[in-house]
Amino acid sequence: MNRFSAKSAISKQTIRRLPQYLRVFYDLHAYGRSLVSSTDLAAETQLLPIVIKKDLQAVGAPTKLRAGFKVAGTIEAIENFLGWDNLNKAFLIGTGHLGSALLGFSGFQNHGLEIVAAFDTNPEKVGQEIHGVQVYHTAQLKSIIKAKKLKIAVLALPGSAAQGITDTLVECGVKAIWNFAPVKLSVPEDVAVQQEDIASGLAELCAKLKSN
Amino acid sequence: MNRFSAKSAISKQTIRRLPQYLRVFYDLHAYGRSLVSSTDLAAETQLLPIVIKKDLQAVGAPTKLRAGFKVAGTIEAIENFLGWDNLNKAFLIGTGHLGSALLGFSGFQNHGLEIVAAFDTNPEKVGQEIHGVQVYHTAQLKSIIKAKKLKIAVLALPGSAAQGITDTLVECGVKAIWNFAPVKLSVPEDVAVQQEDIASGLAELCAKLKSN
DNA sequence: TAGATTGTTAATCGATTAACAATC
DNA sequence: TAGATTGTTAATCGATTAACAATC
Questions:
Q1: Minimal Cα distance from B195: which residue of A?
Q2: Contact between chains at A205 and B176 (C-beta distance less than 8 A)
Q3: Residues 100..139 of A with a Cβ closer than 8 Å to B: which?
Q4: Domain carrying residue A58
C-alpha cells in the first residue's frame, strides 16, 4: 500500500482467512446447505463469530437477516474478491524439491492459479515435463513470458539467484511474484510481491513449544 | 497462550522475523563482522531500524553502546531463544509431493530440526528411503514415536486424515505439531500447533495484485 | 567535543473484541 | 411474540512508529 493508492478497507489478516472460509463454504455447498450463521461457522473454524461476521462483511458476502450468510453468494463474493473466479496463468522458476512439489499441488486450480510453464537451468530438468508442466531453460524466460503474456511468477530457487531473476521478470512486465526464496526482493511499487518464509512458521512453533 | 501461562513479552511478529535476522547475522559472521548497527541491518532487511532494535532487544541480543549489536552474541541469543542451538528430532507424516519436498529441504538442519523418520500408508513408499529418511508404515507410528521418544511431528497429509492422526499423536505424547494440512486441529492446550496454509499467502498476493 | 548509536517512554495505528440496536 | 441473528458503533488490545534522553 503506497500513499497514492486507495486505502484498502480490508485487513491483511482478513485476507489470509478467506481461503479457510472458502473451503468451509465449498463443503457446505456440497452438502446442500444454502444458509449458514456465523455461530455455526465459528464452531467449524475455531474463530469467533464476530471475526467471521466482519470478515465476510468486508468482502460483501450476501446475508439473509436473522438467518445467516448465503452459501452460494458468499463463495462468489470471496472468489470474486480474490480474483479466483477465473484461472490466472502463472509460471514457476526453479524445479527443485519445493518447485516440483508446487507443480504437483493440484489445489492451485481451486485457487485461481494455473501454472503453465516451468524454468530451470539444470540440463537434466530442461525439456522434461513435471506433473504435466513443460520445463524450459531459463534462457527462454523472456521470450516465453512475452509470448504467453504471463503476469504471475512463482519463485522457488536459491536466495542467491532470486534478485537477479526478479529484475528480469520486472523488465518483462511481470506484475506479481510469489517468492519462496528466503530473501526480500526489491521491485518497483507497481509489482506485487508475496514473501513466503517457511522458517517463520517453524520459529513460531518452537517459541510455542518452549513456552508450554 | 492460555490464561494460566506467563504472558510472553515477545510478539508473534517479532518471532516470525527472527529467522530473517539469523540469516543476515550468519552472513555477517561469515564475512568477519563482529558488530552491526540497526541502521545497517535496516538497509539489508528493508525493515525500520527501530523494529530491528526492539526485536533484537526482546531476545536479549548483546550490544555495545554506540556501536551496534554483537554479531556472534546475537546469533547465540536468537538460536537460544528458538531452541535452535541443538537439533530437535522430528518426524514426518505423509510423503506426497509436499512431504517429500520437506524431506529434501536441507535447510532444516540450520533451523534446529532433524527429521529422523517418515510415515505413509502407500505400499509403494513404505520401506523406501526419501532423501535419506526411512519411510515406515503408519501402523508403526505409535511404537516408533515411543521408541525414539519423538516430540515434534510434521503433518503433510490430506485434510481428511489430519485430525485422526493428530489424536494418535497426542496419545503418544507428541508436544508440537507443524501442520501443513488445510484444517484446524483440535489438541489439548499443552500441545503446540503451528498451522501453515499456503493458500493464505496466495490470497495476499492476489489481493495486492488487484489493488495495484 | 560532536555525532552516531542504543535505551526507553510515549504516541499512533490497526485489528480484535465487546456491546447493543435493528430485524424478521 | 420471543429469540436468534445480522448490522454497526465503541472499547480494548497489541504492535508499530516516533521522540528524545543517555552514552561513549
A1: A201
A2: yes
A3: 100-101, 103-105, 107-108, 111-113, 131
A4: 3-82
CB contact under 8 A, A190 and B212: yes
Name A154's bridge partners.
A92, A178
CATH number at residue B191: 3.40.50.720
Among candidate residues A186, A174, A129, A212, the one with its CA nearest the CA of residue B83: A212
Mean pLDDT of B129-146: 96
What is the domain-level CATH number for residue B65? Answer: 1.10.10.10
The verdict on B133 and B173 lying in the same domain is yes
pLDDT tens sequence across A82-111: 999 999 999 999 999 999 999 988 778 878
Q: For the whole prediction, is pTM greater than 0.90?
A: yes
The C-alpha cell at A110 is 481451486
Give phi and psi for A117, each to the nearest 5.
Answer: -160, 150
DSSP-derived 3-state class of residue A116: strand
Mean pLDDT of A112-124: 96
Q: Are residues A100 and A193 in the same domain?
A: yes
Longest dimension (CA), chain A: 62
B65 Cβ nearer than 7 Å to chain C strand: yes
Number of structural domains chain B divides into: 2
Whether CB of B3 is under 7 Å from strand D: the answer is: no
How much is the pLDDT for B146? 96
Q: Are residues B99 and B16 in the same domain?
A: no
Q: Is residue A174 included in any domain, yes or no?
A: yes
- The mean per-residue pLDDT over the stretch A18-43 comes to 96
Mutation target to probe the A interface, by most A beta carbons within 10 A, among B206, B211, B212 is B206
Domain end (from B53, B82, B111): B82
pLDDT at B29 over 60: yes
B207 domain-assigned: no
The answer to whether residue B67 neighbours chain A at the CB level (below 8 Å) is: no
Q: Where are the alpha helices (DSSP H) in chain A?
A: 12-30, 38-45, 49-58, 71-82, 97-104, 141-148, 159-171, 198-211
